[in-house]
Design brief:
By secondary structure, this protein is mainly beta. Helices cover 2% and strands 51% of the residues. It contains one helix and 16 strands. Strand 3 and strand 4 form a beta hairpin. The longest helix is centred in the middle third of the chain and has 4 residues. The two termini are 30 Å apart.
């Protein structure tokens, strides 16, 4: 849940959508990343944590951060980045599903500089009177998600309600000083392989509700 907060202090990553296309009926999105606050005289390893695997994986080694913050593979590199990216800028390409998160990290070879970041190309969000709920998919069939709330009154206590089949839960949640909260959620129900869950955050001035299907569908 705190992936993006794991960077070295002062290091930040910005993502920019540079191309959106349709390939065989599926949306393909390409992103550029720029890094600030990280040393430019070191080589970096790009890691990813797809929602389909249990641990982060190494994608390529030998990347560098240019003076303008863009990331690429040197033309004279003999590291693994040269197999697909030699002399070129790094672009991250996804075929995203709704709410799916893509987590990455750039880590220097001496492990002294770390840039952690994530991208949700197709956010799954609902709003009500300025408040919003977002579902972030952490497993392929929504068996595990993060629910993010934004736009609430800072310090307010709201009621977080979930219902999947006849299983209901009500949990009080205190909104932080930025008007936000987040909670992890496992919507599965014993004896069921699939279903639909509804999530509501009831506050004084708003009550957004979001629902989604989970589990194996026929």
């Amino acid at each position: 849940m705190n992936w993006d907060q794991s960077s070295t202090p002062g290091v930040k990553v910005e993502t920019q959508l540079i191309k959106r296309s349709e390939v065989r009926g599926r949306t393909v999105m390409d992103y550029r990343i720029t890094v600030s606050g990280a040393p430019h005289d070191r080589q970096y390893t790009l890691m990813a944590w797809p929602i389909t695997v249990s641990q982060p994986i190494v994608l390529m080694e030998g990347l560098i951060i240019a003076a303008d913050g863009t990331v690429g593979c040197p033309a004279d590199s003999i590291k693994s980045c040269s197999q697909h990216l030699k002399g070129k800028e790094l672009h991250l390409t996804y075929i995203p599903s709704s709410g799916e998160i893509y987590r990455h990290a750039l880590i220097s070879e001496d492990h002294q500089a770390r840039a952690f970041f994530s991208i949700i190309p197709v956010p799954f969000v609902v709003t009500d009177k300025g408040c919003s709920l977002e579902v972030v998919r952490l497993s392929p069939q929504f068996e595990l998600v993060i629910v993010r709330g934004k736009g609430f009154q800072p310090g307010e206590q709201l009621m977080f309600h979930t219902q999947s089949y006849q299983e209901m839960h009500d949990v009080p949640v205190t909104v932080d000083s930025h008007g936000q909260f987040q909670a992890h959620l496992t919507p599965t129900v014993k004896g069921r392989v699939a279903g639909t869950i509804a999530v509501t955050a009831t506050a004084k001035s708003c009550s957004p509700t979001i629902s989604f299907d989970w589990g194996q569908r026929p």
